[in-house]
Please model this.
Amino acid sequence: MIKISIISGSNRVNSQSLRISKICLQKLKTKKVGIDLINLAKEKLPFWEEDLGENISSHKKSFKKISLTLSKADGYIFVVPEWGGMVPPQVKNLFLLTSNNELAHKPGLIVSVSESLGGAYPVSELRSYSYKNTKICWIPDHVIVRRAKEFSPEKEPRLNSRMDYSCKMLIEYSKALKSVRKASDLKTFKNGM
Ligand SMILES: Cc1cc2nc3c(=O)[nH]c(=O)nc-3n(C[C@H](O)[C@H](O)[C@H](O)COP(=O)(O)O)c2cc1C
Model:
């Protein structure tokens, strides 16, 4: 069975990103897929640090369980808030922590979240600056949820059907990229250029 991990990228409690992640989760429940929801507000992952002498950095211990969950997944939904016109640091940190090719050659759907009329910057940033070493494959469709507080699937059927379609396409890419992963050589080409 295909497994999808949803990552809620806000570290605020009761964030819109978490609310929208749960909407995505409900959508996936109607498909025959396994689902995990990783809430970065709850996980409070430490920032990447180097090991110094005998001291193994704290992120390694904290990240173990999530690393396994992400490794087992076939695809991802990254629900990412726009903060200061950027992707917030806890999401960028996750891309540094996933240094064991957990995300490699697997598709990702970007769902960006804005309180107002923003939301384009995280899409642009993720598409440009997150894939080199992680090798995550962002699918062409993305979703931008603007005026996030007011968003409900019932009130905005056009955006809702776009979310449905994007989830469906993510599942298809998740199946299709299995053969790509089989052909990959991550020992020789762990990182990109
Ligand atoms: C530190 C910070 C910076 C923010 N900067 C922006 C921004 O640049 N553009 C924008 O549309 N919304 C911005 N917002 C509002 C978020 O889009 C809003 O909180 C939205 O609900 C998504 O974040 P959440 O998932 O944490 O709720 C910012 C929020 C915070 C906490």
Residues 10, 12, 15-17, 81-85, 113-116, 118, 148 surround flavin mononucleotide (CB under 6 Å). The beta strands are 3-8, 34-39, 75-81, 107-113, 137-138, 143-145. The CA atoms of residues 8 and 39 lie 5 Å apart. The two ends are 33 Å apart (CA to CA).
